[in-house]
Structures are given as C-alpha cells and as structure tokens.
Amino acid sequence: MHPIFNRRGSLLLYVVLWLALAVLLAGLLRMPGQLGWRDALIIAAPLCLFYGFVCLTPWYVCRYLPLRSTPWFKLIVNHFGAAILATGLWVAFGRFIAFEMGVASQLRPAIPDLVVVGLLIYFLSVALHYALLAVEQSRESEVQAREAELRALKAQINPHFLFNSLNSITALTTVDPARAREMCIRLSDFLRSTLGLGERESISWREELALARVYLDVEQVRFGSRLQVEMNVDEACSDCLVPPLVLQPLIENAVKHGIATLVDGGTIRVDGAVRDGLLEISVENGFDPDSPSPRRHGIGLRNVRSRLETRFGDAATLTAHVENNRFRAEMVVPCRKSA
C-alpha cells in the first residue's frame, strides 16, 4: 500500500495541495481567454483530484524498477510510456468535463498546455517517489544496523557474566566444594532463565527484576551474609518495557567492584520509580577506595549504556556518581508498555 494511505493526515494534506494546484491550473486554462474563472475552476478541481491519484501509481513502478539496479533504457521506456498514458487520461478527463459543461470548444486552445503540464507533473511525481524510496531504504538500513548492534551487544552479556561466575566457582572449589556446587546449580537456573531473551526485543521490568534476583541468588552463595540487598521499586515500574538484562550488569558491577572489595561486605540498594513517563532506576553500593582494583566502570556498564543509546537515543541515559565511598549508577529510560 502507498505510504500516503497509512495516515489520514497525510492523505488530507495531499488532497489540499492538489486543490491548491487546481487554482493555478484554472489560471492556466483562462490564459487563451476563452474560459471564465468559474468554468476554469469547475474543470480544474475534479481534474486535479483525479490526476492526484493517478500520480500515486509511480510508487509501485519505482519500487519495481529501482534506480541502482535497473538499466537506464528500461527506466526511460517504462516511465515515459506511463507518463504518456497518464497524460492521455488527464487530457481525456478534462475534455470530458468540458464537453459535459458545454465548453469543449473554449477548452480546445488550452489542450497543448494541459499536455505539457500533465507530463511535467507526472515526471515530478516519479522523481519524488524515488526520493521517498531512498529515504525509506535509508531508514530500513539504519534500523537493521541498530538491530545488528543490539544483537552484538546482547551477545556480550552472558559470556562476560559467565566468565566472572566461573572464576568465582573456581575460587570456591578448593575452599568450600559444597558452596561451589550450590553456586553451579544457581548459575544453571540463571542461564536457563535467560535462554529465550536473545529472541526478545523487550521484556517487562517485572521480568527483568526477577532475573536480577536469580543472579543475586548466585552471588549470595559466594558472599553469604556479606551481601545484603535492599529493593525499593514501585509497582508502577512493573509493566514498563526494557531491553533484556539491563539491570543485571549494574548489580554485577556493584558486587564485583563494590561488595567484593569490603572485608565486612555491604548493601546493594536498588530504587525504582516512574516519573513523568520515565522509568528511573538507581543501583547504589559501598566500596573500598583503597582496594587494589581501581576499575569502577567495567564492560557491563559500557554495554548497558551502548544498548540504551542504540535503542532509545537521547531519550535514555545511564550515569555514574561516586560520593562518600558510595557508588551510584542511575538509569533513565522511557516507560513504554505493551499494547
């Protein structure tokens, strides 16, 4: 279907433009001096409305004959033939209207002008449709590129998380084999929960929060009472749609670069609310500033920031703040819900 029919406003604007063109055409029909304004307008208005819809047909021809892959002679033959046919219909319909009005003889001197105008308008329509197709193809290419980037970024998540988890399990095997075995079981539960995420563009915040809790169960085995979690998330956040696994890397960062650096452990605090149509999430944790691990922004944070920018553009942000030995990551995304 022609894109102009997808929106009622676009179709209405298109009709208005052709009616405006009818006024100019009426002036052209009067130039030989044999038609009055009233007769010229009565002929021009239905004629332009008719030709307006005729000039939508190049959309389909242009799609069938793309500029870059169609031989030039084929383009000329097809479009020139279509232009002659369209102009013939345009002139024939104008003469029919004039005949029904009884002013066919007065219109006859303006026929050459009608032919020239019909051909020019049709070729202009062809040019505009090729430009419209170029814009559409550019948008499709951009969307495909963004989706490919999202898939690549998403593919980094599980390997990165799995690498960290296996390191933790390796460390536990010699110290506490029972806890290492339990951590393997929890890890398999988490990975099972994420199996279907690669095919989904978005999940609800309720599902995302559930995944984060399964991940925390894995880390709870490793840290025991050293890891405490406080979650203060409003119920209004539950149905907001987010890319899969955007919270888990933030919590993983809080565990790895925060709780793991503290001898006595600490608390990870997760806050969530919806304000002015935006889902606002923060993850806060303490850390040891004298820890030998200086990195506070790992691949997890960079990955999440890149995914948000790719999906939402400037409408989403991920910022990080450090104050009084507390690290705080704040994520803001539009709260969009499934239809």
Account of the 3D structure:
The chain is built from ten helices and seven strands. It is α+β, with helices and mostly antiparallel strands and 339 residues long. Helix 3 packs across helix 6.
Short description:
The chain has ten helices and seven strands. The mean pLDDT is 85.
What structural keywords apply?
alpha+beta, 339 residues, 7 strands, five-stranded mixed beta sheet
SSE inventory with pairings:
Blueprint: H1 8-30, H2 37-54, H3 58-64, H4 72-101, H5 104-107, H6 111-175, H7 177-193, E1 203-204, H8 205-223, E2 227-233, E3 241-242, H9 248-257, E4 266-275, E5 278-286, H10 299-312, E6 317-323, E7 326-334
Parallel strand pairs: 2-4
Antiparallel strand pairs: 1-3, 4-5, 5-7, 6-7
Helix pairs in contact: 1-2, 2-4, 3-6, 4-6, 6-7, 6-10, 7-8, 8-9, 9-10
Average pLDDT reading: 85
What is the helix tally? 10
Spans of at least 5 consecutive residues whose pLDDT stays below 50 are: none
Rg calc: 33 Å
Strand portion: 5-15%
Our measurement of the CA-to-CA distance between the termini, rounded to an integer number of angstroms, reads 24 Å
What would you call the shape?
elongated
What does the largest sheet look like? Answer: 5 strands, mixed
* Classification by helices and strands: alpha+beta
Q: Kindly report the oligomeric state of this protein.
A: single chain
Helix/strand order, N-terminal first: HHHHHHHEHEEHEEHEE
Strand line-up in the sheet with most strands: 2-4-5-7-6
Number of strands: 7
Proportion of helical residues: 55-70%
